[in-house]
Each structure stands twice: as C-alpha cells, then as structure tokens.
C-alpha cells in the first residue's frame, strides 16, 4: 500500500528511548497508517488496487479462535515467532514479528483482513 498518513504513538516513544528490549537498529517505527492499496496478493479477498484503507497497529489472521471471537489483537497465528510469542504488531521489537512499521512511503501488509464493517463507506 502507498501510505498517505501515519502516526507516532506513545509506544513508539518506548522504542526511541531504548526502554523496550529487542529492538533491532534500523527498524522502521510506526503502528498505524492510512493509505491506498497499490497491489494485492493472490490470496487477498475484499481489497482492490485503489481502495483507501486503515491499518491498525496489530496484525491478525482473521480466522483463528481469537480473531473469530472478535479479539484480533490476541491473534494466535500472525506472529511469526509462534502462538506463545504474543501480539504481532508493526514497527516493534523482534518478539512482535518482526515487521517494519508504517512511517514509510509504502508498506507490505502481511495479512489483509477486512474486519467488521462499521457502516457505509465512501470512496475518496
């Protein structure tokens, strides 16, 4: 996706200050972003190039028991370090993925899942 807007949150400050263990030098920070889909993989459903999207801080699979219960931040599958490693999120230490953050021009989103629809959407 092409990122049009991103934010820095309080959690980023822990990483910048060096108070969060496991940060790898050069990791791109940033947990949330808004952008435009530029390309989709073969297994992506519900998204097309040109769609405007919001990417939240946590990464979830959309199909595990926690995701099905409506707890995507507790996804047991998305963290490449295994189900006991905890929540996977963008721009964190090695234990959270590791997946670079969203303070960038473009980002590859590892799992594209459309969570509950908040209502009518307008295309911009």
UniProtKB/TrEMBL annotation:
Keyword RNA-binding: no
All residue ranges annotated as the Alcohol dehydrogenase-like N-terminal domain in the record: 2-111
Keyword flag Mitochondrion: no
Pfam families linked: ADH_N
Molecular function as annotated in GO: oxidoreductase activity; zinc ion binding
Keyword set, alphabetical order: Metal-binding, Oxidoreductase, Zinc
Sections of the chain in a coiled coil: none
Source domain of life: Bacteria
Cofactor: Zn(2+)
Protein name listed in UniProt: Threonine dehydrogenase-like Zn-dependent dehydrogenase
Lineage: Bacteria, Bacillati, Actinomycetota, Actinomycetes, Micrococcales
């Amino acid at each position: 996706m092409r990122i049009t807007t991103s934010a820095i949150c309080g959690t980023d400050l822990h990483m910048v200050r060096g108070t969060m263990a496991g940060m790898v030098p050069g990791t791109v920070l940033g947990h949330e972003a808004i952008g435009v889909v530029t390309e989709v993989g073969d297994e992506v459903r519900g998204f097309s190039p040109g769609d405007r999207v919001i990417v939240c801080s946590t990464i979830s699979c959309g199909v595990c028991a926690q995701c099905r219960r409506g707890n995507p931040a507790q996804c047991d599958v998305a963290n490449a370090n295994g189900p006991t490693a905890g929540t996977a999120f963008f721009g964190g230490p090695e234990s959270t993925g590791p997946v670079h953050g969203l303070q960038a021009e473009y980002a590859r989103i590892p799992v594209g899942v459309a969570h509950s629809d908040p209502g009518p959407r307008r295309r911009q």
